[in-house]
Amino acid sequence: MIRHATEHDLPRVLAIYDAARQFMRRNGNMRQWINGYPSEPLLRQDVAEGNLYVMEDDTGIYAVFAFILGDDPTYAHIDGSWRDTATPYGTIHRIGSDGTHRGVLHECVDWCAGRIPHLRIDTHADNQVMQRCILREGFSHCGVIYVADGSPREAFERI
Fold first, then answer.
1. CA distances from 136 to 34, 71, 103, 133 (A)
2. Average pLDDT in the chain
3. 144, 104, 133, 138: which is closest to 118 by C-alpha?
């Protein structure tokens, strides 16, 4: 089941992001999600804006992601080109899992595509595991975007 996250979920959400960071480090991704990113204030803002979602089953919450409908300012400039600049899209951000379930990105993408078929996502160049998963979900690599701190991210789109 996928549902909106609540303030009550934040301790579990933070634990999931810690597990995801550890997975990244074990797989050679040392530079993504550093310095406590995503921060609790950012997650509280996501909850308040209705953009944070959790995946859960009868054992509890096992994954989290942000899903934002509409133009993402981070995607306004790309070194490369988007395949579609005219159609409204949704953006998947900050997907993380505790590692207990397989196919989390597939489940997320399937749910998001049920709300809007045009999707975008990005990840750090060092996150080879996520890049393979993104491509497996039918996304195309479109170029490089730059996040708020100026660091580059590999950008993908699925129409």
1. 26, 24, 11, 5
2. 95
3. 138
**What's residue 148's pLDDT?**
85
C-alpha dist (Å) from residue 151 to 31, 49, 123, 125: 10, 25, 11, 10
Give, to the nearest 10 degrees, the angle between helix 128-136 and helix 104-113: 50
* Residue % of the chain over a pLDDT of 70: 100
Structure tokens at 7: 């303030």
CATH entry, 2-158, from 3.30.420.10, 3.40.50.10240, 3.40.630.30, 3.30.1330.60: 3.40.630.30
Q: What residues does each domain of the chain span?
A: 2-158
Whether residue 33 has pLDDT greater than 80: no
The Cα–Cα gap between 143 and 157 comes to 10
Take residue 116 and report the two structure tokens written for it: 């809007």
Residue 74 vs residues 5, 15, 70: alpha-carbon distances, Å? 23, 26, 12
**Residue 81 pLDDT > 90, yes or no?**
yes
Overall pTM surpassing 0.85 (yes/no): yes
pLDDT at 7 over 90: yes
